[in-house]
UniProtKB/TrEMBL annotation, chain B:
Name of protein: Dipeptide transport system permease protein DppC
PANTHER family from the UniProt entry: OLIGOPEPTIDE TRANSPORT SYSTEM PERMEASE PROTEIN APPC, OLIGOPEPTIDE TRANSPORT SYSTEM PERMEASE PROTEIN OPPC
Family statement drawn from the similarity comment of this UniProt entry: Belongs to the binding-protein-dependent transport system permease family.
Database matches in Pfam families: BPD_transp_1, OppC_N
Record Gene3D superfamilies: MetI-like (1.10.3720.10)
Any one biological process term the GO annotation gives: transmembrane transport
Alphabetical UniProt keywords: Cell membrane, Membrane, Transmembrane, Transmembrane helix, Transport
Domain (ABC transmembrane type-1): residue spans on this chain: 115-305
Gene (name only): dppC
InterPro entries, sorted: BP-dependent_transpt_permease, MetI-like, MetI-like_sf, OppC_N
Membrane topology: Multi-pass membrane protein
TrEMBL record, chain C:
Membrane topology: Multi-pass membrane protein
Single biological process term from Gene Ontology: transmembrane transport
Organism field: Sporolactobacillus terrae
Keyword list, A-Z: Cell membrane, Membrane, Transmembrane, Transmembrane helix, Transport
Superkingdom of the source species: Bacteria
Protein name: ABC transporter permease
Annotated TM spans: 9-30, 102-123, 130-153, 173-193, 228-250, 280-300
Recorded family membership: Belongs to the binding-protein-dependent transport system permease family.
One Pfam family recorded for the sequence: BPD_transp_1_N
Lineage of source species: Bacteria, Bacillati, Bacillota, Bacilli, Bacillales
Cell membrane is among the record's keywords: yes
GO CC terms of this entry: plasma membrane
Length: 335, 318, 312
């Protein structure tokens, strides 16, 4: 295990809302988590659960004026960044805190060369000369495993395959030596074999640079390969959080259990694959009680009325579920 | 077992009643699915359009203009062409609301007559756009391959033709008249529409619902009619609302140059051309009213077109 | 790249040939001879025959067509029929520089102000500047250039005596014609830039640039503008055409001695050599514009170059 060096990022009670024509959407409804130096936290959940919005909030990239951090705090290296001015935030973005987006096919500007897109960040942030930046960019391309880096610098995005583009995007995120990288579904748009290579690359980079990562994904396979800790998100809230082992072997929240049951596993008979029935709740009008209540096989009367409190399972493992209340045991025994 | 409705105390995680800890009967709490009222594409577009006040203003103006064009010349006590040499260049007054011109003709009456010509030209141009452009683009996109290549080459050459030069040449050959203007407008006007429709068809052709109906053995024309045309209606309508003002402008422009509608008929372009020389003599109303109505009509079509574009393009909906 | 240029060049020649043929056929479909009524004088049959022989109008059509194509290729149109003292080249040589000056300035003004207006409107989306700019743009599209020109004359020449109302003798004479000619295209460009800018600003690569902590100015100028310019470049050829035909009207209103005046006159008097010469000249000019636009497009968007090279 990596040695903890103190909290790098602390997110507390984060609420994010979007104004739309249909009304206000509560995309993130009170999220708490933290990350230590060198650690990888995976945030898992189905699409629309608020995991991407959470990461954008940390990056200071919530699209304005529709989106807004309504409440909560985000502390990065002890500085409150959720209220920083755009100008002060830009000094952190891309240099100490960088992001890798989902689709490498659209994340690169089609009309600019790779070289120009790789170097612009470091030229602006670290005031490097063009030559020095160029040299640095070539180093980075070699680090992420691109051959012929010198020639590659002059090429345009459309001359690369998806996997190669994602390597370039990763090189771009690394070039200023950030302490935290947020990767939003970095492998979703890639072929399975390329996915494995990219995850390999993340491992290697973390070995070499001790960078912390937030891995946003819906794929538990990715979680298993990369994460130290896992946060499971559902309908804008973290419903269970713990070390990878806790989540995979001792999941307490019915939603986490359902997610695990929904993985295709070749080593088990196919009838153990259980899709989660129903759909997540409408975030225009979040439910009063537990948001998973309608889909939960163990839903109790209480779940419909009151949101479950965050309950510690053991040291690093918490879950928001009424089943962890002592009074629930009797109900389970009966049912 | 359910808590009584009269319970006043707010229940928090700390004071949950023990009675609430029992499993729910799954069969009773049937999925409360999130059915939001489903609205069809067209009624949704209409709702969006109605919200756009500017576009509705344009639509309202055009409807009024249409009514005025139809009934204005009929209801007016004055004739469009009859000359009254005693009533030359009268300023606007209760009897001649927009004044009279140098032949004593009522500008008010002539303005609505001009509206007929402008709207007629615009509507005909849009209809030809629709007929030729949609058919050409639809066929080119649907058949694809070599046919598409040749058909697009033809369009490319037509597109290269300087449009107004062609119109002017045609004027020379056929002589200036309303018919010539309409023929001239339709020679090259449809290429834009054909390109748009072809693009849409190419995109839609590969969608699964089209593949599906092909696999049921539907005939090509049926696929075009049932699947492709309804799905391309949005861009087609928007393109038509852009064709109309540009046709109206072309007519006014040509008539202004003396290459369009000829005297004694009134078109806004002719009236503006006459009014230009009258302006220096101080008869401002003779230029003002035709110019105002050309501009207002173009404005109305443009803002309506913008509104339609916002309402019909799902990508722009936020 | 060379192949792409060559390909476009051949297409350009082909289009010119189509226009030449079309013009020829249309000209000869006109009933009546241009010499029936020459400068007010009615000529004798013999004199008409003589003149027709001089201009090869008595020859069979295919031979006339051949002579015609040859004269186009060498750009020698001979003298004007109505004003035999002047060749078509003389007229073009005198009128075109004036029209070119007017048209080019109008195009430059339209592109610069249109692009700026469009960018500001997009950046202040739904703000006051956006509404003002877009109201201005819709007005610019809605008001025909001849109406705008007369309004300008009425206000600045007749009422305020600030600017001269006509002819072409220097900067102060150029202001009103250029504004009248540039406003429509400017409005079109402003609207195009605004909508393409708004679309580009939602693209993932813009978010990538924001995540690098680049300031908004660099993001707009480096990442968004080039992409947002693409649709403007595609309509530049059409805009140039509309400015060119616009010069006909503007030259008439402001009494500017440009090509447009000769052209409109030549149509009314059926002066074949002038009509053909002017049409071919303007067509060639516009097609050259379209050709340059294609090249510019390839330069702005590296994907186009490759796909065009690849497909041919």
């Amino acid at each position: 295990m990596k040695k903890p060096l103190g909290k790098l990022l602390e997110v507390k009670n984060l609420h994010v809302s979007f104004q739309t024509h249909g009304g206000e959407v509560h995309a993130v409804r009170g999220v708490d988590f933290d990350i230590e130096q060198g650690e990888t936290l995976a945030i898992v959940g189905e699409s629309g659960c608020g995991k991407s919005v959470t990461s954008l909030a940390v990056m200071g990239l919530i699209p304005k004026p529709h989106g807004k951090i309504v409440a909560g705090s985000i502390q990065f290296k002890g500085t409150e960044i959720s209220t920083l001015s755009a100008k002060r935030m830009r000094r952190i973005q891309g240099s100490d805190l960088s992001m890798i987006f989902q689709d490498p096919m659209t994340a690169l500007n089609p009309t600019l060369t790779i070289g120009s897109q790789l170097t612009e960040g470091i030229i602006y942030q670290k005031k490097l000369s063009r030559q020095a930046a160029h040299q640095k960019a070539i180093e980075m391309l070699e680090l992420v495993g691109l051959s012929n880096a010198e020639q590659r610098m002059k090429q345009y995005p459309h001359q690369f395959s998806g996997g190669m583009r994602q390597r370039i995007v990763i090189a771009m995120a690394l070039i200023c030596k950030p302490s935290l990288i947020i990767a939003d579904e970095p492998t979703t748009a890639l072929d399975v074999t390329i996915q494995a290579q990219i995850l390999e690359l993340f491992d290697q980079i973390q070995e070499e640079t001790n960078v912390s990562m937030i891995m946003i994904t819906h794929d538990l396979g990715v979680v298993a390969k990369t994460a130290d800790r896992v946060a499971v998100m559902y309908a804008g809230k973290i419903v269970e959080m713990g070390d990878k082992r806790d989540i995979f072997y001792h999941a307490k929240h019915p939603y986490t259990q359902a997610l695990l049951n929904a993985i295709v596993r070749l080593d088990l008979p196919s009838d153990t694959l259980k899709p989660i029935e129903g759909a997540p709740p409408d975030l225009f009008a979040p439910p009063q009680g537990c948001s998973f209540c309608d889909r939960c096989p163990f839903a109790m009367e209480v779940c419909r009325h009151v949101q479950p409190p965050t309950t510690a399972v053991d040291d690093h493992h918490t879950a928001d579920c009424w089943l962890l209340d002592k009074r629930a045991d009797a109900a389970l025994a009966k049912g | 077992m359910t808590p009584s409705k009269g319970m006043q105390e707010k229940i928090t995680a700390q004071n949950v009643p023990n009675a609430w800890f029992h499993l729910l009967d799954r069969k009773k709490t049937v999925q409360q699915s999130l059915v939001r009222p489903s609205v069809s594409y067209w009624s949704d577009a209409w709702i969006q359009l109605k919200k756009n006040k500017l576009a509705m203003l344009g639509l309202g103006f055009l409807i009024l203009l249409g009514i005025a064009a139809l009934f204005g010349p009929i209801l007016s006590p004055y004739s469009v062409t009859a000359q009254h040499l005693t009533l030359q260049n009268l300023a606007p007054s209760p009897s001649h609301w927009f004044g009279t011109d140098e032949l004593g003709r009522d500008v008010f009456t002539r303005t609505w007559y001009g509206a007929r010509i402008s709207l007629f030209v615009g509507v005909v141009a849009a209809l030809v756009d629709l007929l030729i452009g949609v058919a050409y683009g639809g066929i080119s996109g649907y058949i694809g391959g070599k046919t598409d290549l040749v058909m697009m080459r033809i369009i490319e050459i037509l597109y290269g033709l300087p449009y107004l030069l062609v119109v002017i040449l045609l004027m020379v050959v056929m002589g200036p008249s309303l018919l010539t203007i309409i023929v001239a407008l339709t020679v090259t006007g449809w290429t834009g529409m054909a390109r748009i429709v072809r693009g849409q068809v190419l995109q839609l052709k590969n969608y699964e619902f089209v593949t599906a109906s092909k696999s049921f053995g539907s005939k090509p024309w049926r696929i075009v009619r049932k699947n492709l045309i309804p799905n391309t209606m949005g861009p087609i309508i928007v393109q038509m609302t852009l064709t109309v003002p540009s046709a109206i402008f072309s007519e006014a422009f040509l008539s202004f140059l003396g290459l369009g509608v000829q005297a004694p008929f009134a078109s806004w372009g002719v009236m503006a051309n006459d009014g230009l020389s009258a302006l220096l003599a101080g008869y401002w109303w003779r230029l003002f009213f035709p110019a105002l109505f050309i501009s207002l009509t173009m404005f109305a079509f443009n803002i309506l077109g913008d509104g339609l574009q916002d309402a019909l393009d799902p990508k722009l909906r936020r | 790249m060379l192949r792409f240029v060559l390909n476009r060049f051949l297409a350009m020649i082909l289009t010119l040939w189509v226009i030449a043929t079309l013009t020829f056929l249309l000209m000869h479909a006109i009933p009546g001879s241009p010499f029936n009524n020459l400068n007010g004088k009615v000529l004798s049959d013999a004199a008409v025959k003589n003149l027709e022989a001089h201009y090869h109008i008595d020859q069979p059509l295919p031979i006339q067509y051949f002579i015609y194509l040859k004269s186009i290729a060498t750009f020698t149109y001979g003298p004007s029929i109505k004003q035999p003292a002047q060749t078509v080249n003389d007229l073009l040589g005198r009128g075109f520089p004036v029209s070119f000056e007017l048209g080019m300035w109008a195009l430059v003004v339209a592109v610069l102000t249109g692009v700026l207006l469009g960018i500001f409107a997009a950046l202040k989306h739904n703000g006051l500047i956006d509404y003002l700019a877009m109201t201005l743009a819709v007005l610019g599209i809605s008001i025909p250039n001849f109406v705008l020109a007369t309004l300008l004359i009425q206000e600045f020449a007749v009422n305020l005596h600030l600017l001269p109302a006509g002819t072409w003798q220097g900067l102060s004479y150029m202001i009103m014609p250029i504004i009248a000619l540039a406003t429509g295209p400017m409005a079109i460009i402003a609207r195009l830039i605004r909508s393409s800018m708004l679309e580009v600003l939602t693209q993932d690569y813009i978010r990538t640039a924001q995540a690098k902590g680049l300031p908004p100015f660099i993001i707009v100028m480096k990442h968004a503008l080039k992409n947002a310019l693409l649709p403007v470049v595609t309509v530049l050829g059409t805009l140039a055409a509309s400015i060119l035909t616009g010069t006909f009207v503007i030259e008439k209103i402001f009494a500017i001695p440009g090509m447009g005046k000769y052209f409109v006159d030549s149509i009314n008097s059926r002066d074949y050599p002038v009509i053909m010469g002017t049409t071919m000249f303007y067509s060639a000019l516009l097609i050259l514009m379209l050709f340059l636009v294609d090249l510019a497009y390839g330069w702005l968007d590296p994907r186009i170059k490759q796909s065009k090279e690849g497909s041919k």
